[in-house]
Amino acid sequence: MKSAAPRVVSTPHRPIPIDIPEGVAPTEFFNSPCNLKHLASENGLLRNPEGFLLYRKAIGHSNLFDTSIIFDTSAKVLDPMGRPVRRDQLSRKDNIVFSRMTKVVLDYMLEKYPDPAEHLLFCGEASLDSTWPLNKPGVPSVRMIHNHFMVFENAVLAAAPQAEEDNPNLTDSGHNGLFLQFLSDVYHRFFEVLDLEILKPISPEDGKLSLTGYPQGLPSWQVIGGAEALSSGKFWQEYDLVLKGFLDFYRAFFALVSAEDTRVPAISSYPDQIEDVLLFSDQFHQAARMLRQQVIADPAFANEIRWQPAYKQLIYRDDQGRLIVTISQNSVGNAITELLGIVVDRYVDEVAYAKVEKALIDQLLELRTRLVRFNLGEAVSTPAWPHGRFVPLEK
């Protein structure tokens, strides 16, 4: 067996059946209300009154199981930079619905793929920096809060070629190394303030996957009670506390980088901890100085900085079958999978995708039935499942 190392997995997808208008950059089109409407009509599975859309990923990471939930505000909020991209921007009602939907999908994945020795499963929620240029290469295709759910076969990961250590996505364009080398200790000490009962802090080494050696150096928490804990509102409250702590850390750090500003951000959840742990940490100031100097000297690097909070928050099952929560900064181009050491090479191959499409869609339709039963939305018809059954599209 290969030693622990990040892997490159190749995943086929069918051609996207829509043309990008001439003169419009791909990322500009992907964030347009026109594309979001097309996404729902071609790949939508379920909608609810709150605006959440469950859909099949047209360009997926895993064809074993791959789906996403997005808060589709594209018609309600036309300005892409004004759309909610984090849970803390949701109303209480919307947050509860989003959490319940996440719980139902995770329950389904755990039932379908119960053996951690055979399958890696996880969901990852990502936010985007609203100040980042809309047409910057690498901007994820949908500028709204979303959660991505997927399952990989461990045998496929074990057989996959190893990724290069300097892969730009794995290194977060250099940001990951900065956090690992200079901010890891203060990052972990800052999170000690969180008042948690269901989420138990574990060491960064404890939660690593044996196949990839990832995550690396990130604060992580074991979910005490496992899958049953996901049915508790207390778990989701603590999940939000992790996000709030991260947002405090991010804002304080990048305020220091941007303007050498040592004020405690007015909207902080843990102002005393920012003052006590962060602003009096030599390592915190050293890392901010290094990043500030690099921004001043390197225009390419400067254009990649996300000045507003951008994060990836994961729930994954580790080798021991435990559910683990972790959180990281979200930098240029990197995907949810790469936080766990999986680089996905997605390519067009209609024939290869057709061989796996029915099995994938059958699961997603079964999951949809469960969400409808729990009053979390109504079914959406598309050309590939017009009446709740998979129908191969004619060429």
Tell me what the structure shows.
With 395 residues, the protein is α+β, with helices and mostly antiparallel strands. It has one domain (7-379). It is 35% helix and 18% strand. The protein is built from 10 helices and 12 strands. It has helices at 26-30, 33-43, 92-112, 154-159, 175-191, 233-259, 271-278, 282-297, 299-302, 350-373, and strands at 7-13, 44-47, 52-56, 65-71, 119-126, 146-153, 199-202, 220-223, 311-317, 323-329, 342-348, 378-379. The strands form 2 sheets. The chain has a 10-stranded antiparallel sheet. It has a two-stranded parallel sheet with strand order 1-11. Strand 3 and strand 4 (65-71) form a beta hairpin. Helix 5 crosses helix 7 (271-278) and helix 5 (175-191) runs antiparallel to helix 8. The longest helix has 27 residues, at 233-259. The protein is globular and about 65 Å long. It starts with 6 loop residues before the first strand and ends in a 16-residue tail after the last strand.
Question: How would you summarize the topology of this molecule?
Answer:
Layout: E1 7-13, H1 26-30, H2 33-43, E2 44-47, E3 52-56, E4 65-71, H3 92-112, E5 119-126, E6 146-153, H4 154-159, H5 175-191, E7 199-202, E8 220-223, H6 233-259, H7 271-278, H8 282-297, H9 299-302, E9 311-317, E10 323-329, E11 342-348, H10 350-373, E12 378-379
